Structure formats: C-alpha cells, structure tokens
Amino acid sequence: MKIFVITTCIIIGLLLLFQVYTTMSINSTQTQPYKVIRVEKDFEIRFYPAATMATITSSAKSYKELGSSGFSKLAGYIFGGNSTQQKIAMTAPVYMDVNDTVSSMSFVMPSEYNKDNLPKPNNSEVKIVTSADEYVAAITFGGFASTQDINENIEKLENALKANSISYYGNFRYLGYNPPYQLFGRKNEIIVSVNKDFN
Questions:
Q1: What domains sit in the chain, N to C, each tagged with a CATH number?
Q2: Which of 3, 31, 85, 168 lies at a 20 to 30 A Cα distance from 123?
C-alpha cells in the first residue's frame, strides 16, 4: 500500500511538472498578431493583418474529423515534410473552418516567412496561401473544445453581434491554441469576419 501511494505521488508530480513545462512552452510560442479595435461584454473586434498560412481543404463535416485528418498533414509539412526538409516552428492559433461545402484547416506560419521563402510542401494537399487583411469579431472560451462547445459559442457570438447591430459575413471559424496534451489553461476562440462599419 505504501509503495502504491509513493508511486501515485510520483506520477502526479511528474504530470504536474509536465503541465507546467507545457504551459511555459505554449507561452513562448509565437502567436498571430492582431490589434484590438473594440471591446464588448462578450466579444471583441480585432484587426488581423495579412498572414502566410499552410492550409489543407477537406470534405470533413465535423471538427473532430477535420482535426484528425488535417493536423497530421500540416504537422508533417512543418516537421520537415517539404522540399528542403526544413523544420518550421509551430505557432498559434490553428484555424478550423467547418461548413457544408469545403472545410479547411490552417497553420499560421512564423512571421519571418512568406510565400516566397517557404519550402514547397511534399504533400500536394498542403497549400501555402496568404490571408487578406480582415476585421473579425472574436469570442473566447476555455477547456477542451467539443463540437457542442464550439456550436454554443458560435450561437453566443452571433446573438451578441445581432444585439449590437454589427453585420458579419462568411463562416464562423474555430481557433485552437493548445496541444491536446495540455490539461490546464486552455484557450479557444470563435471568430467571424465583420464589415468595417461596426463603429
């Protein structure tokens, strides 16, 4: 019994140390820059300048399906699956756009890269694209994001925008900031493009 208690304490201690290390690593991860334009009770308006992204498209109709199929392809690219076998740092967030036509998943490339100096993906399904400048509305929530959580926050953001007479367009997109093995301090967001006349 005593050995069991000691072993359990050691395992818990190692798990906590791993989570502290993970949180510190995430805090040092480059995050896509943006400027906060307006803050409301449940959401904020941001301006995102153009960014270079590695993107895959998919026929997936759920976040789970898109995540499981898309992540390995994009991770393969940044972990050396490219024309120069170059390793590219992971950034945050990961974009996911699930809809009834064509879904997509994207990794934001570190700021020092653009379409001209990134190596060519070995996997032809991975495309290097440049996003347009955009204004978005964003809502943030914690924990492990389930499809239900995502849909509830999409509805919450949509209702808040309507209540504030802010027009929006395009699909609501999910942004994930944490690796699956991070247990604490998780961050998720829903964003949607808004028109410039939100003031």
A1: 2-198 (3.20.80.10)
A2: 31
